[in-house]
């Protein structure tokens, strides 16, 4: 495994999120991954050269980095953030995005910065990651740069679909 980049992945309930192999690797970058109840394990087996681990969230999980000679590790969060909403647009489908929500405390609704994915007038639907083809868990119309999303519990991973042609 050389020069792998793992970015913007979501993992929950099953794990670990494992990056490594039996042969030495170098140039590994693990950035902006969002985990819940899953440990992140970087490296195992062989002695490795270098890795960069930045901006990852491991709520109810831990970060382990082993057997790397050089490690750049920064801005990673272990534990449930008080409030965090991350919208990850799909680069292949302009009407599809993933929404990751963490709520350690506070309101049962989170403000989500939806722009530029959603524009005022866009209709959208949110689906559970467990049932992406089922009934939406929430739907609405974007009125500004942020939308208010109801949330139960401390974690949610949602599929967001923008309705094409919904603008006035």
Which key features would you list for this structure?
18 strands; 2 domains; mainly beta; 53% strand; 4-stranded parallel β-sheet; elongated; Immunoglobulin-like; 168 residues; 5-stranded antiparallel β-sheet
Protein described:
The chain is mainly beta and 168 residues long. It folds into two domains: 5-78, no CATH class; 83-162, Immunoglobulin-like, CATH 2.60.40. 0% of the residues lie in helices and 53% in strands. The protein has no helices and 18 strands. It has strands at 5-7, 10-12, 17-21, 28-31, 34-36, 40-45, 48-54, 57-59, 63-65, 68-74, 77-78, 83-89, 96-103, 109-113, 123-128, 138-141, 146-150, 155-162. The protein has a five-stranded antiparallel sheet, with no helix packed on it. A four-stranded parallel sheet has the order 1-4-7-10, with no helix packed on it. It is elongated, with a radius of gyration of 18 Å. The termini are far apart. The mean pLDDT is 93.
